[in-house]
Amino acid sequence: MISKLFDLFADCEVSGSSVDVLRRGVSLTKNQFCEAIYCCGTSFLICDWNKIRAIYLEGYTVRIRNLNSMSKTEISYWTSTLPRSDSIWNMYLTRAGEVGVGNHFDPHDVLAIQIFGQKRWRVKRLSSTHMTQNYNRFVTREHVSKTEFTYYEMNDEVTEQGASLCLKTGDLHNVEAISDSAHIAAHHVVPTINDLIGYYLSL
Predict the structure, then answer these.
(1) What tens digit of pLDDT does each residue of 130-148 get?
(2) Burial, 71: exposed, middle or buried (Cβ in 10 Å; 0-12, 13-18, 19+)?
């Protein structure tokens, strides 16, 4: 399945800025896999997916961002039923036993969908104070109105092919691949403070 996905992306014009390579929270810089990228006008495109695949085989997680902006038929089919145009879909390809992004939380709700393989999710809820100190963003009214989240440990969640998992804004989570696997993380774009100020100034 991994090979089919790499072949699928090889047939697309994927921007180099849309691909990240991570291992336990540490990212390779574009310079470290620049041989896989070439310049096409003002755009930098992934030209050698075999090199990206080789990095993956070394144990790095490959994150392909903004699937919804790609035009390849098979990919656009996945996102053709999105309820809103401001949804963002990112895919994570991870080898068995590896961790990609590492412990982190997001300033928005996330729906994780397991494409194939298995992943173990360890989730802990953070306080809203911690969340707002780290992200200069507005979140939903529900979260803004709360003065503090409670701290609690959730049982480990294992997602298998076809399963989904919802993460709330501020949930601290760490994802480990039990087997070679891929999942999609989908979220809606959340406006920043600057976005909102710009909107009201334009009225």
Answers:
(1) 454 444 443 443 443 443 4
(2) exposed
Q: How far apart are CA 73 and CA 12, in angstroms?
A: 10
- Amino acid at position 146, single letter: K
**SS3 of 197, please?**
helix
Q: Tell me the pLDDT of the chain averaged across its residues.
A: 76
Q: Domain span at residue 121? A: 2-201
- Please name the helix (run of DSSP H) or strand (run of DSSP E) that holds residue 172, with its range, or none: strand 171-177
Half-sphere exposure of 187 (CA within 13 A, CB side): 18
Predicted TM-score (pTM) of this structure: 0.78
Alpha helices for the chain (secondary structure H): 2-10, 49-57, 73-79, 128-134, 141-145, 193-201
Q: For position 114, which CATH number holds?
A: 2.60.120.650
